[in-house]
Design brief:
This protein has 130 residues and is an alpha/beta fold. Helix content is 45%, strand content 15%. Helix 4 packs parallel to helix 5. The structure holds 1,3-dihydroxyacetonephosphate.
């Protein structure tokens, strides 16, 4: 599966810890990330991550483009709901495209915990029918 990993600044530590905890599962998938999130994951885990631009510089939009091309199967987005983001329109657009194309999206660690277990259990097989 092609998985996008995105975390706002105050959630990056959570993302790094999540990817360390589930490296065993994630290493079997193709990972993508926005710039700074991807750099942290690459530096702090053994995972290979394809990095897009940083979020404020268009990274969310690049991931949205992959979704529109049916080139992304899951988005794990650790959002910070307490800090205003300069690129909020890009974030909304990304989430909208997930809804347009029925791409599973979670926006917090709790959702990601469920999603990663579902991935490991084979619940994403339906994506191969797309
Ligand atoms: O801003 C982001 C998502 O909206 C994340 O971007 P970075 O991973 O580059 O910090």
């Amino acid at each position: 599966m092609k998985i996008a990993l995105i975390a706002h600044d105050k959630k990056k530590e959570d993302m790094v810890n999540f990817t360390i905890a589930y490296e065993r599962i994630l290493k079997h998938h193709t990972l993508f990330a926005t710039g700074t999130t991807g750099k942290r994951i690459s530096n702090e885990t053994g995972l290979r991550v394809q990095r897009f631009q940083s979020g404020p510089l268009g990274g969310d939009q690049q991931i949205g483009s992959r979704i529109a091309d049916n080139e992304m199967d899951l988005v794990l987005f650790f959002r910070d709901p307490l800090t205003a983001q300069p690129h909020e329109p890009d974030i909304s657009a990304l989430m909208r495209l997930c809804d347009v194309y029925q791409i599973p999206l979670v926006t917090n660690l709790g959702g990601a915990e469920i999603m990663i277990r579902a991935l490991d259990a084979g619940f994403f097989d339906w994506r191969n029918l797309q």
